[in-house]
Design goal:
About 30% of the residues lie in helices and about 20% in strands. It has helices at about 1-15, 105-115, 135-150, 170-185, 185-190, 200-215, 255-265, 295-305, and strands at about 30-35, 45, 60, 65-70, 75-80, 90-95, 100-105, 120-125, 195-200, 220-225, 240-245, 270-275.
């Protein structure tokens, strides 16, 4: 299972860092430094730091959205549903960013707000990341080199070997988040039998790693959104899964092994393959068929008894 998970994560991470401006809808891909924003309600998880990471957490804006990098202290930000609407179902939301940065708004706060508006408690996980260069200029150079390396054909003998990430920090962050939610379940109106996890890109990889590896987190459902699609070995107690990805996402490559893995394990799975949407579409981009995925997810939760009609 470890080997299969590494293949899954390698495919997902390096697909993400191949993202180019053609897939983004007329927004500015240049990185602009911004001040570290206030994060009202963010709760420290106290899971430790990041080894060999001298740089401070910093933020930048790209594609119009705030991004965080060099995260060494994990936090969890609750977006609680109005008690009049709350149904006890809750979701841990894991933004993406190739484990090098986090798209906090597009794949975190906005998604959590949409879930809370539908009566679902949402918890945005700001998990620890791989160290990157201290200055934004050096980080841009670092990422440009990654883009160039990842763009080379897989059979290019001159292409650098693709590393396999150690996700022990990130898994510890998920486990701490789950434990925190459990400890305050009554206060937050959380039904621990109806808690799931949704992740985007690298966050989808973390969702899968949690499902396949963690002995401490018991998820009722999972929703990896535009993550890797490689086959995996499915645990006997794996939860139902909702998957969404677009055909023109460079992570897709016609691969549906992940879906077949759940199908072969006889565990409920729903798969939405959209005509277009590219990568990193969050809740949606203009004039793309993938814009309807969130409503489909909500209906899937309803049919499976996690929310009421």
């Amino acid at each position: 299972m470890q080997r299969q998970l590494k293949v899954f994560l390698r495919s997902m991470v390096f697909g993400f860092i191949c993202l180019n401006s053609a897939a983004i809808f007329a927004q500015d891909g240049k990185m602009y430094p911004i001040d570290v924003p206030n994060e009202p309600g963010a709760i420290p998880l106290n899971t430790g730091g990041v080894e060999n990471q001298p740089a401070q957490e910093s933020w930048f804006r790209q594609w119009g959205d705030p991004m965080a990098r060099n995260i060494t202290k994990a936090t969890l930000t609750p977006f609680l549903a109005d008690p009049k609407k709350a149904n006890g179902t809750s979701v841990i939301v894991a933004p993406g960013g190739g484990f090098m940065w986090l798209s906090m708004k597009n794949e975190g706060w906005e998604v959590a707000e949409a879930l809370a508006a539908r009566g679902i408690n949402a918890f945005v996980l700001k998990y620890r990341l791989q160290p990157t260069a201290d200055s934004l200029e050096a980080f841009e150079n670092q990422m440009n080199q990654r883009f160039a390396d990842a763009a080379k054909p897989a059979d290019d003998k001159k292409a650098p070997a693709r590393p396999q990430w150690d996700l022990s920090n990130q898994l510890a962050d998920v486990e701490a988040a789950y434990a925190l939610i459990n400890s305050r379940a009554k206060e937050w109106n959380v039904d621990m039998n109806k808690i799931g996890m949704m992740g985007f890109s690298a966050g989808a990889g973390l969702t899968m790693a949690t499902t396949l590896q963690s002995k401490k987190v018991k998820l009722a459902f999972i929703a990896p959104i535009y993550g890797g699609m490689n086959a995996v070995e499915v645990p006997k107690n794996a939860p139902p899964m909702f998957v969404a990805i677009a055909v023109d996402d460079f992570l897709f490559h016609g691969e549906t092994g992940l879906i077949k893995s759940w199908y072969d394990a006889k565990i409920p799975v729903e798969f939405h393959l959209y005509q277009n949407g590219g990568h990193g579409f969050g809740l949606g981009n203009p004039d793309r068929t993938s814009n309807k995925w969130f409503e489909s997810f909500m209906y899937w939760l309803e049919v499976n008894g996690f929310v009421k009609p």
